[in-house]
Amino acid sequence: xTRIGFIGLGIMGSPMAAHLVAAxxxxxxxxxxxxxxxxxxxxxxxxxxxxxxxxTGAEVVITMLPNHPQVEAVIDEVTFDDGTLLIDMSTIRPxxxxxxxxxxxxxxxxxxxxxxxxxxAQQASLSIMVGGDEADFAAARPFxxxxxxxxVHVGPHGAGQVVKAANQLMVGGIYALVAESIVLLxxxxxxxxxxxxxxxxxxxxxxxxxxxxxxxxxxEFQPGFRIDLHHKDMGIALDxxxxxxVALPVTNQIAALVAAxxxxxxxxxxxxxxxxxxxxxxxRA
Length: 285
Prior knowledge:
Strand order of the largest sheet: 3-2-1-4-5-6
Number of domains: 2
Oligomer: single chain
Radius of gyration: 20 Å
Number of strands: 9
Shape: globular
Largest sheet: 6 strands, parallel
Distance between the termini: 54 Å
CATH architecture of the largest domain: 3-Layer(aba) Sandwich
Number of helices: 13
Structural class: alpha/beta
Family: Belongs to the HIBADH-related family.
Organism: Lentzea atacamensis
CATH superfamily of the largest domain: NAD(P)-binding Rossmann-like Domain
Protein name: 2-hydroxy-3-oxopropionate reductase
Order of helices and strands: EHEHEHEHEHEEHEHEHHHHHH
Strand content: 5-15%
Keywords: NAD, Oxidoreductase
GO molecular function: NAD binding; NADP binding; oxidoreductase activity
């Protein structure tokens, strides 16, 4: 049993913390939501009164927060014990992850963003891309295996965030293309379910078609991952491209579509709601 401090018990963090409790670890969590704290306590964890309370005495600290300002606020607020293993599973800018590792020289720091959304968190099937020292990755792996299935050390500090940025630009692009396919099929009088069923069995097959085609056709956009968060992630991808001094023209277009979804009032919907944006452009709303 390991003493784990878990900060950020939202849609993703709550089931992840619960899996760690179920695996036999002593998990103390903190979140600004009292309901999230109560839920953790009901699942066998402990509710902390503050972020510092969650961190004090913890051998491992996991953060799962919305964006870099929240992560930086925690880093500024708390004092970590020497040698603490800090696993930041938030999706933030690579430069922020690098700076956190530099600042916390007495702490073993990993950036370990995830892919898989709410379903992946609930099913403990997340893909986890990890940046940091190899030895620290080895130490973290037993905990990561509790919440994920595909766990890869991708490079030094910040590398995990770069891979996550690549993931998000690909996910956004696939959603946009599935949306355009649905609009084309429907406008042409073709049953979109039959059409996408065929596509899902050929070279165009992908996980989004597997998991989301039926809900997209039904226009069911209950959030598993909100447009607002994908908008943030596309900004991270564009920042990473600028830092690497590369032009990513399709990424720019996808970022514009996601920004349009947010501007059109769809920010609280699932990112599959890019379909609504494509319909608006196509005059099919």
